[in-house]
Structure of Alpha/beta fold hydrolase:
Amino acid sequence: MADSFRTSDDLDLHVVETGPSNAPVTVLLAHGWTSSQAVWDHVVPELGPDVRTIRYDHRGHGRSMPAPVDAATIAHLADDMAELIKAKVPSGKLVLVGHSMGGMTMMALGEHHPEIAQRVSAALFVSTSAGRMSEVTFGLPKPLVRAYVKRTQRPAGSKPSTAPRRPRKQTVKVEVPAPVQRALSLVLTRWLVFGSRFRMIDVRATADHAAAVHRRTAALLRRSIGKHDRVSALDAFAHADVRVLVGDRDRLTPVDHARAIADALPNARFVLYPAAGHMLPYERVREVATQIRRAAAF
């Protein structure tokens, strides 16, 4: 059942619920940056018809409204998650599953809403990170990445140089045909976020989710991800059954980032998937569903 949830700052979030409302366990699933709640489409059916699930589009993603300039941070995503839990899961057993930025949102929930984190019986951090995201090089040489970032990004608040510039040569603008743009997008998506075992239908879906995101909100959230540092916030889940899932070919949130989460929670279970990339909800559907079922003990 699809529904709309209104946040305290007047944004409509697209929410999808499945399963019986009186189920003893509720599984809340949060997606990643430039993705959508639809990334869980294959995982949810594997949990069975008797399991209650709630998944939603983060602000500025999928069918949810974009965020104001001052309200597009991981902390605001955590506020959304807290409000959604209070409204939809006021009592009962609660399992949180977060992919990528969704996992970061769970950490921010522990930081800003520890009373809700205490209610969580199980927490699954899927292909995510507790910090150092500004150091990620996507498997490329660090000097190349640094040069690219320096060339394409100007520090916030900086002003353009007033020094005289040499006249630029007139350039010819070349229009790249839409089919070529699409093909390049799929090639980049496949290389960046998938491992060696993938389906093209999932690559296309991932590219489509990214194309539908609200650009300004996504850009602001990307800046927030770069500042994300919440290793200490993981303590809020020390009481829960914690599982950390990662693919050994994950370029966005590499294996050492996942190990850092597991190391911060000595009782956490670390699960490594060979030949898998960043998109475990697509690449390892049954395995992810199995981990959720085991953590929730249903």
Summary: The CA atoms of residues 44 and 189 lie 23 Å apart. The two ends are 22 Å apart (CA to CA).
